[in-house]
Amino acid sequence: DGSSQLSAYERKRLKNITENAKFFASLKLHESAARLHKIATKVPSHVTKRAKPKKAEDETVRRRSMRLQRVEPSGVPMPEIPAQPEAEEYPRVPAGPLSMVPENQMEDSKSTEEILTTWTRISEMKPNDTEKHTWDVERYRASLNSMTLSEDNVKKVVKNRIYSMAIHPSESTIFVAAGDKLGQIGLWNVNCKTEEGAHVFIPHNYPVSCMYFSPFNPAHLLSLSYDSLRCGDVTRAVFDEICRSEESFSSFDFLEDNASTVIVGHWDGSVTVVDRRTPGTSSELSANIGFKRTRTVHVHPVNKQYFIAAGSMDVCIYDVRYLKSNGNKPVSSLDGHSKSVASAYFSPVTGNRVVTVCADDKLRHNNNTGRWLTRFRAIWDPKQEDCFVVGSMARPRQIEVFQDTGKLLHSFYNVDYLGSVCSINVVHPTKNILVGGNSSGRLHVF
After folding, report:
1. In whole numbers, what is the pLDDT of the chain averaged over residues?
2. DSSP state, residue 230
3. pLDDT over 90 percentage in the chain
4. Other CB atoms closer than 10 Å to residue 435's CB: what's the count?
5. How many CB atoms are closer than 10 A to CB 148?
6. Is residue 377 a contact partner of residue 296, using CB atoms and an 8 Å limit?
7. How far is Cα of residue 209 from the mean position of the Cα atoms in its chain?
8. Cβ atoms 188, 173 nearer than 8 A
9. What is the CB-side half-sphere exposure of residue 37 using CA atoms within 13 A?
10. pLDDT value at position 132?
11. N or C terminus: which one in the chain shows less Cβ crowding within 10 Å?
12. CB contact burial 336-356 (16+ within 10 A = b; e otherwise)
């Protein structure tokens, strides 16, 4: 029957379908339906019965809490909770390497081959200008003003809330990856204007919280979820497993230009160092840095021995060369935040600046997204040392660009094609391209 040629995921899926069919057959639902129809069409008797008097206690209305009524304390109705996926629809992803087969692998293999071929082709081309530079403010503002959003450049790429995005450094093709709450990764060739331009893969079981194309080899897409760090290698059409842990991974960044080693942050506050060249899926070093939780880690662009970690209310810089299991002291602490910090990143050219996002709204900037939206992360424009991009709660919905002084330089908006909050954003390293991702899996490319 050809089942021996299927992957473990495909065999598991077919097994689930077969077992479900047998179960529903055993229920004999067609017989039950016939009996119900007979009862429903039975002629009712004409015997009149006296109405039973109501008891006093029956008239008492039972109190229901605001939570059960789905109403906020302010009296505003809460949004509906999205339906949870069925276990059969999203089977668990096994450990180890996974074939790079999309969710609908049986339906359209030709278009899948096309998008993977595109990824391979653009990864072989090197960008013309890899040197980082900073424009003057007016020239930079003019470049922002020239960027627009069209209907063709809006697409639902993944099924659920976007937690991370990455953009390929290609200067000829706009190629974007988005990771969502369900562990799915969507790949979108924006230049392809047909439905086949995007495909969904499922390499993780949990939210894809961090993702980068390798700066050394963009044919590799590294993605991180709670329990695993994987590398999608398009040349071999496989999602390799680099590191696995029972603990909850939160973020990662590359420690070297060749992308062979990474620093990984954990939700329990610790960090680990992982070397991709060593066999197995364990880390080389685990270090307690004294955080209650570590949300993001980011490596200095010039002096790569330094990395910055952001946690509950902590933002600290550490030297990876002196990390040990316990008793680690930061090189520098950036104090002042009074609430939880969502992210902290070095500026892209010199690393002399750090931008953080915190629930205390320090830029007089409303970033209290609530429980239904992914928390904002302010990211530097890789082409501009002193300007960063961040989502906004303002209306009309928009994505904002600030200077490091706190001055608002530009707002990206389009009342026709952008009607939602873009919590996660990514900027192309050399071209004037910005991608915003919302909490329903939709991408907007300016």
Report:
1. 87
2. E
3. 69
4. 25
5. 11
6. yes
7. 5
8. no
9. 6
10. 64
11. N
12. ebeebbbbbbbbbbebeebbb
Strand partners, 401: 389, 410
**For the chain, what are the domain ranges?**
91-125+159-230, 363-445
Residues 276 and 261 sit within 8 Å (Cβ to Cβ): yes
C-alpha neighbours within 13 Å on the C-beta side of residue 210: 27
Cβ-in-10-Å burial (0-12, 13-18, 19+) of 313 comes to middle
Predicted confidence (pLDDT) at residue 77 exceeds the cutoff of 70: no
Q: Half-sphere exposure of residue 126, counting CA atoms within 13 Å on the CB side?
A: 5
185 beta partners: 179, 201
CA separation for the pair 106, 96 (Å, rounded)? 22
SS3 3: helix
List, for residues 339-380, the tens digit of each pLDDT value. 999 999 999 999 999 999 998 887 656 667 777 899 999 999
Query: Mind listing the pLDDT tens digit for each residue in 133-149?
Result: 678 999 999 999 999 99
Instruction: Please name the residue that has the structure tokens 């931008």.
Output: 355
Per the CB < 8 A criterion, the answer to whether 237 and 116 are in contact is yes
Tokens 């680990």 correspond to 272
- The reported pLDDT for the residue numbered 369 is 78
Non-local (6+) Cβ contacts of 199 within 8 A are 102, 103, 104, 111, 112, 115, 186, 187
